[in-house]
Structure formats: structure tokens, C-alpha cells
Amino acid sequence: DSSTSRGLGDVYKRQGLQPGAMRASMSYYTALLASDPEDTVRNATPLDIPTSVIWGAKDPAFDRQLASPGEWAPGAKVHFLEDVGHFVHLEAPDRVAELMLQELADYSSK
């Protein structure tokens, strides 16, 4: 809801004003865009470890189709949080922790 969005906006505003925060943020995106996506895909190898994706279904930046790892993580579990946006760990920390703990328990019992 809008109160959650405003609260997160305030958090990011405070964090962005910390020394070095903007440089770190911009460096991340600079590095991300510096490589050719086709090279990344060409050099990637599929994961052969248990993999889970926790995805905010209301993510304004990425379509939910991108949540499916397909051939890159065969057997991966995808969890959609329907009322959550891009920053699932901030918007729904309890649900993310619950899913992570459940995945770890499931993996440990095998």
C-alpha cells in the first residue's frame, strides 16, 4: 500500500544520504551495465544446487516471467509474494525468512 511505499522511500532516502552510499549504488549499476548480456549468458553454466527464487509479484521493474530460472536452475522452486514489489526482503521480511527457513528445513531432511 502507499503507506508502505512511503515508509520504504524514507528508508532509502536516509540510507542514500550516508557517506559512500550513492557511489556504491552507482558502481553497482555501472558494473551491471558494463558487460554484454550475451557474454554473460554464453559463459553461464546451470546451477546444480537446490535453488529457490522469492519474487514480488508487484515488482515494477521486472515482469514475473523473469522469475522462472528455466534451464539455468533445473528444479528450482519459485515463490511469488503476491502483494510485494521489488524489494521482497524489505517489504515482507517475515515471509521471506519463513520461506528461507522452510527451504533449508526441506533440504536438510533429504
List descriptors.
110 residues; mainly alpha; two-stranded parallel ribbon; 5 helices; 2 strands; 51% helix; 9% strand
Short description:
It is built from five helices and two strands. With 110 residues, it is mostly helical.
The percent of residues in helical segments reads 40-55%
Instruction: Report how far the terminal alpha carbons are from each other.
Output: 39 Å
The description of the largest β-sheet is: 2 strands, parallel
Q: Per DSSP, what share of the residues sits in E-state strands of 2 or more residues?
A: 5-15%
Find the count of extended strands (DSSP E, 2+ residues).
Answer: 2
In round numbers, the mean pLDDT is 86
Q: Taking Cα atoms only, what radius of gyration do you get, to the nearest Å?
A: 17 Å
Number of helices: 5
Following the backbone from N to C, one meets helices and strands in this order, namely HHHEEHH
Q: What's the overall geometry? A: globular
Strand order of the largest sheet: 1-2
Structural class: mainly alpha
Query: Could you list the spans in which at least 5 consecutive residues all have pLDDT below 50?
Result: none
